Amino acid sequence: MKLIKRNLKEPRPAGDENGAADANSVSSTTAATTTIDPLTKLDKETTDELQNILNKYERECIGNSEFSSKLDAIRSVIKLDQSRLKDKILAEQDFKVYNQQRIDLEKQINDRIDELNNILPKLDPNSSCSQFHLKQRDALKKAKELSNIKKQDALRENSKLCSSDTDYDPFYYIY
What we know:
The protein is 54% helix and 5% strand. It is built from five helices and two strands, in the order E-E-H-H-H-H-H. The relative contact order is 0.09. It is mainly alpha-helical. The radius of gyration is 30 Å and the shape is rod-shaped.
């Protein structure tokens, strides 16, 4: 793509009101052409997006080793030059897929914790179902710092409802 720059301080060429010169006038306007390398632009945009990810999530990853390793991968590719643009793009895509899954799982975990918070006041505090749901809630709170796979497992295991035939086992829950 070529851009034409015009110095606006220079006088308009002689001619009609729109600046169209007649055949006898001499133009004093000079044009400079510049090309923008699309790869350079894409590299800068990608690098900027990677830096935004680091700035946004740097503090959120504390206590979550999987999250930290995803950000470490971004830290390593952000330093690469334009010849490794593909690696930068792949790292950005990988993080965005991981992060969306993380956000979705944490929302499901929070929703389940809210359900438990609504169930618990309705139960006798010393009942086996109360103990069952308290352990579930504790396990889910701890699950937020786990890998996405372990979050899924914890959510599945701790979304069960207590029934009259539930045998409460305090060591059963996945953390």
